[in-house]
Amino acid sequence: MTIDRAGLAEFLRRRRESLQPEDVGLPRGPRRRTSGLRREDHCFLSRMFTSGAREIATLRGRGSRAAQLAELLLERSEEFRTLWEQHEVGLRPDDGKNLVHPELGRLELNCQTLVDSGQSHYLHIFTAIPGSESYQKLQLLAAVGDEA
To answer: What would the DSSP string read from start to end of 34-101?
Structure first.
């Protein structure tokens, strides 16, 4: 089988450009020469996916859909196998989030995630640094919300 390296490179470049770091929960960072995801972003996301799969498979145990998916990926993906063998668990993106409110504009928030593993529920709690511009905006939003 012959691989069209130029075609593959073009395909991968277009796929990386189609996603922005914010689309997958990563910070944009100060130095970006091109739009889209960089190779190191892909590397981090692969490690994070594997970490999450290990965590879920451990919580759910053998026979679960998560465990079956992990077994399938271990059989078919060398990259997944390599990452799985590193035993990384709990790998998460930066807790900082930038949200744009339609009336208040940009909010720089910290995000804490609480997990109910028995029900697969996630609760995201957003807070701002006291005294910051985002904190003031959240206070305003809370006041407006009480009036509605």
So the answer is: SSS--HHHHHHHHHHHHHHHHHHHHHH-TTSHHHHHHHHHHHH-HHHHHHHHTT--S----SEEEEEE
pLDDT of residue 29: 66
79 and 101 fall within a common domain: no
Q: Find, among 71, 67, 66, the residue nearest to 81 by Cα.
A: 71
Tokens of 35: 């739009």
What is the extent of the structural domain holding 85? 36-92
Better pLDDT: 99 or 31? 99
| pLDDT score at 32 | 65
In a domain? residue 117: yes
* 41 and 88 share one domain: yes
